[in-house]
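Record now logged underneath.
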Amino acid sequence: MRNDERYHFSDFTRENYRRLLRLSLKTYKPCTFTNFKQYEKYILWRHDLDTSIHSARKIALIETEEGIISTFFLHIHNPFYNLFEREVVDCVREIQKLGHPIALHFDSHFYNIQNEQALTKYLAFEKTLLENIFEQNIEVFSFHNTTPFTMSCQKWQYAGLINTYAEFFQKNVGYCSDTNGYWRDRRLEDVLREAKDQSLQILIHPEWWQDSVMSPKQRIHRCVEERAKNNMGLYAQTLKEFGRKNLDW
C-alpha cells in the first residue's frame, strides 16, 4: 500500500476539513476550554500553531462560516513565524475578530524546564507577553513537543492557565491529533462517524490542511518556501521604496 493511501493524504484538504466540521455538528457541541462544562456531549477544537499563521487564518474563516468556535495556541519561540512581525500580528488579530480565542503554545524545551516551579514562572512570563501583544486575556496553554516531565504535569492549572494536558482531559475526554501531517492514533473521520466518545479534544495543525492533496513533506516545504518568497518580496519592496539597488552578480 502506498503512503497516500495508508496515511490518508486526501483527508487533509480545506474542503474536507469543512466537511468534517459539518459532520461533527451532528453529534457534538463546539466549545472552548473555558465553557465546555455546561454541555454533555462537546468537542474542543484546538489548533497548535507550529508553522503557519496564514494557514491558521484560513482555517479560522472556514470554522466561523460553519458555526464552529476553536482555540488557537500561539508559539512565542517559533522558528517558522515571528509574533512581533506586522503581518503575523495582523493575521492573529483577524482570527480574534472572527471570534476565536487565542492561547499559549508553550515550549518547555526553550527554558530546559525540569520542575513545576520553573514551569509556573515561565508560563506566567509568556502569558503576560501574549496579553500585551494581542490585548486579550490568555486563559489556556498547551505544551509544545511533550516530554515525560510535561506529560506528568497534570494539574488543572499552572500560572492561572488551564492545562490542556490536565488529568481531567487525559482521563475523561477522547483525543485525536493530526501531528506531523497524519493521524497518529485514530482517523478523525472514523472518530466523528462512530461518535463513541462522550466528549472530544481534537488537535488540528492548520499547516497540514491545504487546498490540494499533498504529502506532509510537500505541505511543510510549501509553508517554508512561501515564507521565504514573501521575505524576499518584502526586501525588494524596501529597496524600491528607499531608492536602493538590489545588486547581484
User: Anything to note?
Assistant: DSSP finds ten helices and nine strands in the chain.
